[in-house]
Amino acid sequence: MLSAEETAPRQASQRIDTLVIGAGQAGLATSYWLSRHGVDHLLLEQRPELGGAWQDRWDSFYLNTPNFAFLLPGPTYDGPEPDAFLPRDEVIDLFRDYAQRIAAPVRLGTEVTRVTEGKGGFADTPGFAVDTNHGSWRARNVVLANGAFQRPRIPPSSATIPAHIRQLHSHDYRNPAQLPDGAVLVVGTGQSGGQITEDLLAAGRQVHLSVSSCPEAPRRYRGQDTFYWILQVNLHGPEHGITGFQVEQLPSPAARFLCNPLISGNDGGHSIHIRELGRRGVRLHGRFEGTDDGVLTFSDDLPARLALVEAGFGQRMGRLADAYIAAAGIDAPPAEPAPADDWLPAGSGARLDLDAEGVTSVIWCTGYGLDFGFLDLPVLDEWNYPRHTRGVTEVPGLYAVGLPWLTRHASATLSLVGADAEYVAGHIAGR
Predict the structure, then answer these.
(1) What sections of 186-267 are H helices per DSSP?
(2) Which of 36, 96, 194, 366 is 20–30 Å from 156 (CA)?
(3) Which domains does the chain have, with CATH numbers?
(4) Mean pLDDT of 111-125
(5) Are 58 and 74 in contact (CB under 8 A)?
(6) Given a cut of 60, is residue 122 above it in pLDDT?
(7) What are phi and psi of 140, to 5 degrees?
(8) What is the pTM of this model?
């Protein structure tokens, strides 16, 4: 692997057939297929080391998908525990090993600052001018593979929280020791919010939790890990008439950004139930709405919100898994009914006086937004998402891989990003 210092351009502009922006799982999968097609290419990675966004996870993080789901093209996971879950550092090592095994041409520490139309660098062929912090390039093709975890999202109302309260996004959270003594408010109950709450509880912290609408899910369903059924429906559902996980079935483009089910890979993999967190001492609140004279306010709908969170899996993912099992004729055990649970905390949790409750920190587990600020091309829709068909954008020679719902539900995952990368690489080779 080449560092930016070792490979910094010595001329004003270099030429290459294809530049891939990003060397996470999407970029590496694209590189694999470009190499198979014999396409001259280079991956530009702004980080100083390989490992993608997994390097931004907290110390106790475990991959939420089982090892069998590591399905990047070519060499994949071949360890002794396909049903286990990898800790963060092993995930990073796995990616670095993968990059070496496929001989991916990566230039590290290279941030792309501008992409615009220009000559492709080969006679008068159209293409792109790409500026970086280490020089400029001319390329016939550019692949956007910089991922879905680009810009941490924090609500503007966070600015009204008192200045003495420590605030950070889950992107920057590593462990409880980095926080001042005192209680912690976690905002959001996607996978990050649930897992960080458990991390804080294990350290003996008092935790307040603002509940969002992300669905809970059983870790195992009908004899398999839940992700096994998600993967099968994505891969083989259309063969049996089950198309709910295809992008064409989304109710609106905004649905591409809905959160993933609340599960964890820690402790051998388990479900996370918000009511159970409440029984363990977590103080539950509704959706964060803002501040009122130093007091945080939340939606006063916690009972309905908890019911919505608990029903989400059965209404969509569970139903699709059941339909697939039936259509494919799979002999799977029946679903176990979820135990009735009507526990509710005392009080509505609609207001929180930070000082009175000893809260000294807020962790925003509120997800990420896409960031293509370097693109000087008219290709983004109102959600900042490239307009495309199967990763081929409206601008000839510009492609996208590794975005949520690029072609289906799991397009951005380790399991299925390779299929989209294969299609894009074939399109590039065919130009």
Answers:
(1) 191-202, 226-236
(2) 194
(3) 4-150+370-430 (3.50.50.60), 152-368 (3.50.50.60)
(4) 78
(5) no
(6) no
(7) -75, -30
(8) 0.93
